[in-house]
Amino acid sequence: MNNWENITLGEFIDVITDYHANGAYEKLKENIVLKYHPDYAVMIRTQNFESDDFTNNLIYLNESEYNFLSKSKVKPFDIIMNKIANPGSVYLMPEISKPVSLAMNLFLIRINHRLDQKFMFYLMKYNENYIKRFANGTTTKTITKDAVRGLRFRVPPYCLQKRIASVLFTLDKKIAINKRINSELEAMAKTLYDYWFVQYDFPNERGKPYRSSGGKMEYNDLLKRDIPGGWEVKSLGGIVKFNRGISYKSSDISEKGTPMINLNSFYLNGNYKVDGIKYFNNNYSDSKVLFTGDLMIATTDVTRSADIIGKSFLIPDIFETQVIASCDIAKVEVDDIYKNYLNFLFNSGYYHQYIKGFASGTLVLHLNTDGINWFTTELPDKNILIKFNSVIKSIQQKKAMTIKQNQRLLSLREWILPMLMNGQVKVLDAFEKMEGTAAI
């Protein structure tokens, strides 16, 4: 590392800006109306980075509003930093299909050509704990532009910056591709559910779309709508029971132990989030052990809008040891034939609006599971469910394979990052050789 140089970040910043650089509060309020349906541009928020989801739960701007916010337009690979709420956390803006503008409480940092932008992201990510020491405040901690400009780092020559960034970005790109594959698989599964159980165009005995081909529909007085002939209508309390997860103390959680899924394991769209896992290091009964395919729901929530409460996911086939759940999660004990169907139902918009009405609390929302028991719905013919489950099982197996591959890639990234940032060039040489043989 003899040829590494000490720098002050501010000397290499071309742009450091935020939402409020576009004008005074009243001016911004007058010109900007946030939208929750697709429009010209996306206003990127911390939660998009933390959930690694740039498809769901987005807020939008029209073209005029996007251009009004000209001082906070975001380009791919810009460095984004929290300035309030976990200040100093850094993210790299990915390429997405719409123009992007910066939300409040974030900084946009763009490095000039004398340093490699991607390398500086990885260097800052590696040094997040150092950056966060510059946050100040009692009730709410913040980090200022001046503090960011004053950050000091040790950097290698530019050509080595490029090599290091290339290795790390290659890993991240492979991870992103796998995530995109899984997003497409999830979209396929959701489309199939909607087609079969919302539009009722599941395949009839001749393989034709049931409703579109004249399948018999019957009006149901309880649901106030037509449903396929012969389908049952009943409350879910007749088919489900709940097995709540384990209560725990902070001392029960460590870096090793039994994987414990928890609220952080939920994406806002209800899918399973791998990096939300905790590890439990105390005793538990056999009745709390979970298995691949178990249906889990969130029974508490810390978001005031109840974004997660009542949502569900199926445990993927990615665990090599026993897995358990925290007390914020409950296992839905139900016949296997209904699990996939209920998983999509629990994550549907109309059901979530219903179940949020059974959440109450002050700091933490708690779900009254009677709301689930009382929910009345149609239950498809079991032969249809068998066909549906067969298709969904194949999709779940493909998703599990890509999740496991990403776990290996993330482990490799976590192993190699500190070595590269500490100047171990031999590791870089070995990795580039390994990459050239398609070993990763």
Characterization of this structure:
Helix content is about 35%, strand content about 20%. A hairpin with a 4-residue loop joins strand 23 and strand 24 (about 365). It has three domains: about 5-155, Adenine-n6-DNA-methyltransferase TaqI, Chain A, domain 2; about 155-205 and about 380-440, Helix Hairpins (Orthogonal Bundle), CATH 1.10.287; about 230-380, Adenine-n6-DNA-methyltransferase TaqI, Chain A, domain 2 (Alpha-Beta Complex). It is globular, with a radius of gyration of 25 Å. The protein is of the alpha+beta class. Helix 4 (about 115-125) crosses helix 7 (about 160-195), helix 7 (about 160-195) packs antiparallel against helix 11 (about 380-420) and helix 8 packs across helix 11. The mean pLDDT is about 95. The strands form eight sheets. The protein has a four-stranded antiparallel beta sheet with strand order 2-9-6-7, with helices on one face.
